Structures are given as C-alpha cells and as structure tokens.
Amino acid sequence: MGQTDLRLKGTPVDTLNADGTWDRLGSIAQLLHQAAAQVWSDADEAAPDSPLHDLGLGVYLAHSQASALLPDDYELPDIDPLPDLEERTPLQLLNEAEELTRPLPLHQADLVHGWQLVLDLCDLIREARGLGY
C-alpha cells in the first residue's frame, strides 16, 4: 500500500505573492506595529487601569497575528515609511489595516486563519472609536 501525503496542500508562496498578498500582509503588520506603539505610548501616560492598556494589547496581538500569517522566509521590503505615518491616529491606522485585508484570498490554505485577524481588527476599530480615538 502507498503512503498518504498528509502535508498541507497550500498555494505556493510565489503564487500568493504574485498578486501582492504577502506584501499586503507585510503592510498590515507595519501599520499595526505603528498603531500599537502609539497606543502603548498613550497608555503609559494614562492611569494604570486605563482601557488604553487593553487596546494596546489587542493591537499588539493583531500585529502578531498578521506577522504569523507571513511565510517564515518573507522579508519586509526596504521602503521608506510613509511621511505622515506617525501623524495618523491609531484609529486611522487600524482602519487602513482593515481596508488592506479586504482583497486578501482568505479561502487559500495559507491564509485560512486570516479571517480571525479581520474580525479582531473590526473589534479594535470599534473599541478605539469608543475610547475617542
């Protein structure tokens, strides 16, 4: 009897990157990194029981989710950061990250867990709005 190949049959990395999927995820990770840094900075100035600490942790975890979806050998391209990146609010950065998820092929085996990132981003956007960002 022949052996059954139990390895995950995902889309080749080159195929997904041909449409910019990995670069899009890399951009999402960069936006979330900046948003997390800004929220943590604001949380440091707030009271210890401020809900900003929860928001900062949530954004940081979303950044980790986006990074985990990238292939191990993916390297973020060396690009100059957008000039106004630090001037954008965390809410603007979260909205941009969510918008970048819309064309992602979440039905592909390599991105099957990406739907959780989309849901978490929507929750974080709602939470940030509620905090006045």
TrEMBL record:
Stated name of the protein = Uncharacterized protein
